[in-house]
Amino acid sequence: MSRFLPWLFVALLTSVPLWLNDFYVLHVMITTGIFIIAAMSLNLLLGFTGQLSLGHVAFFGIGAYTSALVSLGFEVHLLPDFTVGLAPKPVWFAMLCAIVVAGLTGYAIGKLSFRVRGAYFVIVSISFAEVVRLVALNWVELTQGPMALNNIPALVLGADAFELSFLRKPAVYLLVLATAVACYVIIARLVNSRAGRAMIALRENESLAMSVGIDVTHYLVVATVVSAGIAGMAGALYTHYIRIVDPDIFLFIYTVTMVIMVITGGKGTLAGPIVGGALFGFVPEALRAMAIEPEVQWIIYGVLMVAVVYFLPRGIVPAIEHYMSGRKRSPAPAASEASQK
Amino acid sequence: MLELSDLVCRYGKVTAVKGISLKVGRGQLVALIGTNGAGKTTTLKAISGLLPAAGGKIIFDGQDITNASARKILSLGIAHCPEGRHVFPYMTVAENLEMGRYLRRDWEEIAKDLARIFEQFPRLAERRQQPAGTLSGGEQQMLAIARALMSRPKLIMFDEPSLGLAPNIVELTFDIITGIRDTGTTVLMVEQNALAALEMCDHAYLLESGSLALSGSGRDLVDNPHVRSAYLAG
After folding, report:
1. Which of A89, A313, B219, B223 has the most CB atoms around it within 10 Å of its CB?
2. What whole-number distance in Å separates Cα of residue A233 and Cα of residue B164?
């Protein structure tokens, strides 16, 4: 029974464009969906390996810029008589490039920064995002700097009569939904594998994980590459939907939004980022729709966030699981305290 | 089987182990005793590759394993059961044991070892689907020992196995360790409970502030006046 529930949920979401005529609501669902994908990728690092990447938006932004540049084509003069150029490529190819480039960046960052852990990793990741933002802002020849890259083509599949154009919202919506499902399956497979067990082990006790023979750094790098690739894909979806990208995409606030989604939903659970993402994706829009003053809107947002963290410190999904299992069996254990006895 | 020569370990500028040489013979139970800060735990960590050695050599089965990776050392057959009975609290008992055999792929033998462990530790069998954090202190210690055994080591190292356990559990733990030695696995044990350790071991080393102070059979050390006054209180 509960095995079919997720698929029923996906089927319900798939049917949304059939009965929903409000394009504004559809737009909110698309951007929320893109952020949910990004939050899922962050959850892989934060929730399963326990490393807080506060520069996660860098991978998202690198995906967005890569996809935009490959689909628009570019020409830069690196030396007085040395030019690198690229003719415009199809959008699907550009999106693949976004995943690859973001993944490679993840590899480099993982290799470099997992020499340090904890607070140091947080600092490295923030600095990295800030450096990338400054590059995007100042390398005007490549990125147009603050003038932004405009007229980014939308995804078009097939040709002529069978053309499936993702200029229209319902098509983009379905694309985002399909990507989200695929990313969910990839992450679920990964964390339930041998590699996933190793990641959880190193989150729980790194030196113990080492002593049972887990190559800790190796698995951290694997997690970072997968996480960065998925975040890059989310960035590419965003870029071809909004069709404009500027350096503000690297702002710290986007990382914070992702972290909020993961923490409130429940880090280290597969459904957590989806629940948290849906909640904090829709709430601002719902409040706006209720025509409350903007100031009040953000106060409510903040209060809601504090309330969730205060009353459900482990997140919404673990709280629901706890409640459900509490009704079936004896209450779930309060794990680590018992080890102090 | 295991030989340390002039092992030196540093934490930054502090030298915790100042040139220790010792030998562990095949099938022996060797105890490393000494006060807090004598360098016992550091020595074990250097052997299992969790800490780099700043100098000296570690030879295991004729192979130089100084500064090899923890993974390599484990695969050669040295298991480390760390201080404070560490388990993965949010993983079940079965998953913890699975982590113990992480590097092995000989599935049939693994199944046999698992069956043997559940036979030896019936409590763990009963609770195999329970998160390890919900076990009692004694059960967690059993789990930590069982997990170390799951790698089917040639040499197993215990760091303070009696720490924080009830007296009857301490006795049980020591019985299990002696039992492991009796089945042919070499044991190197760090222990603060000097009398118990000296009584059960084949050979003992006394560490004092990072250097070797004494060595001999357990009996020799128990009879030594210095050991008597400083460690056995009487």
Report:
1. A89
2. 50
From B95's Cα to the closest Cα of chain A, the distance in A is 9
A14 vs A173: CA distance, rounded Å: 9
Under 8 Å between Cβ of A212 and B102: yes
A213 chain-B contacts, CB cut-off 8 A = 70-71, 74-75, 102-103, 151
Residue B61 confidence (pLDDT): 92
Domain presence at residue A273: no
Q: How many CB pairs under 8 A join A and B?
A: 79
Residue A279 lies in a domain: no
ipTM over 0.85: no
pLDDT tens figures, B8-41: 999 888 889 999 999 999 999 999 998 888 889 9
Residue A290 gets the label, from left (phi > 0), alpha (psi -120 to 50) or beta, of alpha
Instruction: Read off the DSSP letter of residue A153.
Output: P
Residue whose tokens read 């939907």: A241
Q: What percent of chain B has pLDDT over 90?
A: 44
Q: Distance of CA B192 to CAs A159, B137, B198, B212, Å?
A: 78, 18, 10, 16
Residue A75 touches chain B, beta carbons under 8 Å: no
Number of domains in chain A: 1
What is the value of pTM for the model shown? 0.81
Count CB neighbours of A103 within 10 A: 22
Instruction: State which residues of chain A have pLDDT below 70.
Output: 1-2, 157-167, 291, 327-341
Give chain B's contact residues with A (Cβ, < 8 Å). 48-50, 69-71, 74-75, 80, 82, 85-91, 95, 98-100, 102-103, 130-131, 133-137, 140, 147, 151
CA distance A330 to chain B (A): 12
- Taking each helix axis as running N to C, give the angle between helix A23-43 and helix A272-289, from 0 to 180 degrees, rounded to the nearest 10: 150
Per DSSP, the three-state class of A212 is: coil
Closest CA relative to residue A200, chosen from B140, B141, B97, B90: B90
User: Tokens 């390996």 identify what position?
Assistant: A49
Alpha helices in B156-193 (DSSP H): 167-182
B164-209 pLDDT per residue, tens: 888 888 989 999 999 999 999 999 999 888 888 898 999 999 999 8
Q: Are A266 and A277 in contact (CB under 8 A)?
A: no
Nearest chain A residue to B73 by CA distance is A213
Q: What is the pLDDT of residue A22?
A: 82
B2-231: in CATH 3.30.750.80: no
Judge whether A7 lies within some domain.
Answer: no
**A204 in B contact zone (CB under 8 Å):** yes
Which helix or strand (DSSP H or E) is residue B76 part of?
helix B70-76
Is A118 a member of any domain? yes
Structural domain containing residue A31 = 22-252
Domain assignments of chain B as residue spans, ordered by start = 2-231
Contact between residue B138 and residue B169 where contact means Cβ atoms under 8 Å apart? yes
Residues of chain A in contact with residue B131, where contact means CB-CB under 8 angstroms, are: 333, 335
**Can you give the pLDDT at residue A189?**
93
